[in-house]
Write a structure and sequence with these properties.
The structure is a single chain. The protein contains 4 helices and 16 strands. With 280 residues, the chain is mainly beta. Among the domains are: 103 residues, Alpha-Beta Plaits, CATH 3.30.70.1400; 67 residues, Beta Barrel (Elongation Factor Tu (Ef-tu), domain 3). The protein has a 6-stranded antiparallel β-sheet with strand order 12-13-14-11-16-15. Strand 8 and strand 9 form a beta hairpin.
Length: 280
């Protein structure tokens, strides 16, 4: 298995980590995230999202258990804002909420896979992600690693439909627009959490008018936030993209009325590609 190197802090897509420690950590998170945190096992990696009171996604994260506590893995640029957001809800709960990004070394792996979603080997965690990816983190230096291919990593995530938000798209979308309900990122039975009313109403009243879909461009790469058009009308926005060959692949949040159509961003045409899961 080829493993990627320790990521430079200058990496704009670098991973970050928030540690929730203390006796009330799991119950606090149960009231703040879309997933059923009380079901998180030591070998699990649970997908969930932190929302605004209006039900918009501030950050998508994966939760694991480590000796430090419950660790939320998310983009580094979102760690500090999420810590500040959640600290407002802590009140008398017995826990600490800290950005531990600087305390971990991170590495990415491709072509990896294991039976358990999270393996803890000494101080090193290996977390399996969709698209044959792994994220490694350790408080000690990560050795015997090879050069990362950042575009290949992100292209694999896009091919798996593993949508994420960045500091540029945080707070823009309700979870269903990012297909979190199709990726086991939302529990509809666990009870209340911040933003839950909007998520439940969206789900049960059938008001999901936009979803995330995958596209391929034969040339060029579009930054997040780029508007996409069909017959001159704006029908969606690029969420994330990665170079692939001479072109690129992208995930974009699109009106369902345009879901199977080729779209345009200026002179660039984007062709729809299938996702590995069914989008209703």
């Amino acid at each position: 298995m080829s493993v990627n190197p320790v990521l430079a802090k200058a990496d704009p897509c670098a991973p970050g980590a928030i540690v929730f420690a203390g006796p009330d950590a799991a119950t606090f998170l149960q009231g703040q995230l879309t997933c059923d945190v009380l079901q998180l096992s030591d070998s699990g990696a649970m997908l969930g999202a932190c929302l605004t009171p209006q039900g918009r996604v501030l950050a998508i994260m994966r939760l694991i258990r480590r000796p430090e506590g419950v660790v939320a893995l998310l983009p580094e640029t979102l760690a500090a804002p999420v810590v500040a957001h959640l600290a407002r809800y802590r009140l008398r709960a017995k826990l600490t909420i800290e950005d531990h990004t600087a305390r971990f070394n991170f590495a990415r792996a491709l072509g990896a896979g294991a039976a358990a979603a999270h393996r803890l080997l000494g101080t090193r965690s290996q977390v399996s992600l969709p698209g044959g990816r792994e994220l490694w983190l350790d408080t000690a230096p990560l050795t015997q690693v090879t050069r990362a291919n950042e575009d290949a990593w992100h292209a694999a995530a896009i091919g798996a439909g593993d949508a994420d938000v960045s500091d540029r798209t945080s707070g823009e979308y309700v979870p269903q627009m990012l297909n979190l309900d199709l990726r086991d990122g939302i529990s509809f039975s666990k009870g209340c959490y911040t933003g839950q009313e909007i998520v439940a109403r969206t789900q049960h009243l059938g008001r999901i008018k936009r979803r995330t879909f995958q596209y391929r461009a034969s040339a060029g790469q579009l930054p997040p936030g780029t508007g996409l058009e069909l017959a001159g009308a704006n029908v969606g926005t690029v969420l994330e993209s990665a170079a692939l060959g001479t072109g690129s692949v992208a995930l974009a949040v699109i009106n369902l009325s345009a879901r199977d159509c080729a779209l345009r961003a200026g002179a660039l045409e984007l062709t729809p590609l299938a996702l590995p899961y069914q989008v209703p």
